[in-house]
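Bug #77: duplicate submission created two jobs. Keeping one. Sequence:
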Amino acid sequence: LCNRLTLSDINSKAIDICNKTIKHNNLYKEVTAVQSDGLKNIPYPHRLYKFDLVISNPPHINNDKPVKNSDTPSIIYNDYQWEIHENFYKNIKKYLNKDASILFIEHIVGRGQEVFIKQIEENNLTLEGIFNYPNSDMYFVWTKND
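Kept job's structure:
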């Protein structure tokens, strides 16, 4: 399906688990796990970090307060002022090969579609479409680097 896979997460425990899986399956040549807040720790320029496909499940809510009755840390769901999305769209282009695709999974409760479209267009990327996930409150934003 792919020659190289790069996994990234802000959570060091998630990266530890990824690295254990990489080691257990002897995937050192094919898979890299990088602890990173967005793209901040993804090496550039570097030949291994030019992508054809980026898939992300970013925080879905523009809220500066914790969600009531939630045990989930706000870093998982909160993207205050859509800054995580903005920084991603502003910086991803240099990591993309021509015709690369970006697929974000989002939640309708975040109500960010108009903001995301603007961020995509401002950063010279092309919105291919927004697609609802069947029987769910989730949707996908598909963007291309033309």
